[in-house]
C-alpha cells in the first residue's frame, strides 16, 4: 500500500475557489487602531459579568438595611473591580512583534500566559471576592436571624461553588502544562519521535 | 518601514497569498461566520506586522508566521466552543472501516477526511500539516514553525500514513 503522492494532495487541497474575506485598507487601519483579538472578546463577557455584579451589589448597598449588608456589598464591588483589573493585566494580547516569531514559540508563550492565569485563579479571581461575600453573608444571617447551623449551610454552599471554580481552573491549568511539556519534548526530540 | 511601504507590502502579500490564507482559515475554523472573522483578523495582523518587517526572513515566511499565529490565537479564544480537546498526530486514530482507493475517491470525500484530521490536531501539528498541504517546502515549514526539518518530515509521513490506511489503493490489501 503506497501513500498518496504530494502532488495529488496539494492539488486536492488547492482545488476549488478560495478567496479571503475582503477588507478595505481603510477598514484594516481602523480595526488595527482598536484593541482586541479573540481573547479580548472573551474577556469582554467577563467584564460585562463584573459590571452586572457591581450594579446589583450597588443597589444592595443603597437599598438593603444594616451596616453588614451595605459594607459587604461595597466590598464585593471592590473585589469585582479588582478582578476586572487583574483580568486585563494578566490576559495575553495580540502583539505584532510576537506574532512574527516562529509559530511554536508563539503558541508556547500563549499557553504559558494562560496557564499562569488559571493556576493562580484562587489568588486574583476568588480571594478578592471572599471578604465582601463573608461580610454580606454575615449580614444576611443577622437580618434573617439564621441559626449557627443555617449560617454554616449558607456559607458552605458558597464555599463549594468557589471550590468548584478553583478546581476546574486548576484542572485546566494542568492540561495546559501537559501541552507545554509536549511542545518542549517535541522540540528536544530532534524529530525522531 | 513607513506607512506607504507597509501598505504596499500588505497589498503584495494579499495578492500572492490571499487564496492560501483563505485555505489556512478553513483549516482553523469550520464555522463560516467565524472563519470570515478570522480571515479579517489575519489581514489586520498582517498589515500591523509589516510596520516591523525588515527583511530578516523571506516575505512568505513572515506572512505564514503571522497568519498562523493569529489563527492560533483564534483557536485558543474559541476553544470552549470548539472541540473538547486537540491531539498530536500520534494520538489520532481514524476509522479504518470501508477503505476506498484514494485516486477513485470523490474529491469532496477526500477533502472531508483531510479536514476531519486537521480539525482534531493541536496547533503545532496543524500548522505543519496546513503548510505542507499548501505546498510549502519542508525546510521553509521548519523555519516557519520553529522545528527541525526532520520533525517536519516525520509529521508529514505520519499524516500520509493515516490517509493511506483510509484510502487504500485499489487491488492492494488494507
Features:
heterodimer; A: 193 residues; mainly alpha; 8 helices; elongated; B: 174 residues; Rna Polymerase Sigma Factor, Chain: A; Arc Repressor Mutant, subunit A; 7 helices; 0% strand; globular; disordered C terminus
Describe the structure.
The complex is a heterodimer of chains A (193) and B (174). By secondary structure, chain A is mainly α. Chain A has one domain. Helix content of chain A is 75%, strand content 0%. Chain A has 8 helices and no strands. Chain A has helices at 6-13, 25-32, 38-63, 67-90, 103-119, 121-126, 130-143, 148-188. In chain A, α4 (67-90) runs antiparallel to α7 (130-143). The longest helix of chain A is centred in the last third of the chain and has 41 residues, at 148-188. Chain A is elongated. With 174 residues, chain B is mainly alpha-helical. Chain B has 2 domains: 3-77, RNA polymerase sigma factor, region 2, helix turn helix motif (Rna Polymerase Sigma Factor, Chain: A); 89-166, Winged helix-like DNA-binding domain superfamily/Winged helix DNA-binding domain (Arc Repressor Mutant, subunit A), CATH 1.10.10. In chain B, α5 (123-133) runs antiparallel to α6 (138-145). The radius of gyration of chain B is 17 Å and the shape is globular. Chains A and B meet through α1, α2, α3, α5 and α8 of A and α1, α2, α3, α4 and α5 of B.
Amino acid at each position: 500500500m503506497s501513500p498518496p503522492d504530494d502532488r495529488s494532495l496539494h492539488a486536492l487541497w488547492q482545488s476549488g475557489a478560495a478567496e479571503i474575506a475582503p477588507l478595505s485598507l481603510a477598514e484594516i487601519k481602523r480595526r488595527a487602531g482598536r484593541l482586541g483579538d479573540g481573547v479580548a472578546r472573551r474577556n469582554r463577557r467577563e467584564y460585562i459579568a463584573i459590571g452586572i455584579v457591581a450594579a446589583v451589589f450597588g443597589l444592595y448597598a443603597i437599598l438593603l438595611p444594616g451596616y453588614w449588608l451595605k459594607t459587604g456589598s461595597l466590598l464585593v464591588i471592590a473585589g469585582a473591580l479588582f478582578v476586572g483589573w487583574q483580568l486585563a493585566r494578566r490576559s495575553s494580547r495580540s502583539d505584532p512583534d510576537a506574532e512574527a516569531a516562529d509559530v511554536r514559540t508563539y503558541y508556547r508563550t500563549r499557553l504559558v500566559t494562560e496557564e499562569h492565569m488559571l493556576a493562580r485563579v484562587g489568588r486574583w479571581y476568588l480571594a478578592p471576592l471572599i471578604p465582601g461575600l463573608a461580610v454580606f453573608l454575615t449580614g444576611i444571617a443577622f437580618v434573617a436571624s439564621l441559626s449557627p447551623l443555617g449560617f454554616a449551610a449558607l456559607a458552605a454552599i458558597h464555599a463549594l461553588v468557589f471550590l468548584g471554580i478553583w478546581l476546574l481552573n486548576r484542572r485546566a491549568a494542568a492540561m495546559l502544562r501537559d501541552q507545554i511539556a509536549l511542545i518542549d519534548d517535541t522540540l528536544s526530540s530532534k524529530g525522531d519521535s | 518601514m513607513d506607512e506607504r511601504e507597509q501598505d504596499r507590502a500588505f497589498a503584495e502579500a494579499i495578492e500572492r497569498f490571499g487564496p492560501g490564507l483563505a485555505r489556512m482559515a478553513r483549516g482553523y475554523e469550520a464555522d463560516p461566520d467565524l472563519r470570515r472573522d478570522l480571515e479579517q483578523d489575519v489581514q489586520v495582523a498582517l498589515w500591523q506586522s509589516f510596520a516591523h518587517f525588515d527583511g530578516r526572513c523571506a516575505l512568505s515566511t513572515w506572512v505564514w508566521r503571522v497568519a498562523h499565529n493569529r489563527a492560533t490565537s483564534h483557536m485558543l479564544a474559541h476553544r470552549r466552543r470548539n472541540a473538547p480537546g486537540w491531539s498530536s498526530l500520534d494520538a489520532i486514530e481514524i476509522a479504518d472501516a470501508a477503505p476506498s482507493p484514494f485516486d477513485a475517491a470523490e474529491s469532496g470525500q477526500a477533502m472531508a477526511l483531510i479536514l476531519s484530521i486537521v480539525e482534531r490536531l493541536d496547533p503545532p501539528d496543524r500548522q505543519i500539516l496546513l503548510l505542507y498541504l499548501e505546498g510549502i517546502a519542508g525546510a521553509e515549514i521548519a523555519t516557519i514553525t520553529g522545528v527541525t526539518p526532520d520533525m517536519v518530515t516525520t509529521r508529514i509521513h505520519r499524516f500520509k500514513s493515516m490517509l493511506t490506511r483510509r484510502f487504500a489503493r485499489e487491488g492492494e490489501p488494507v
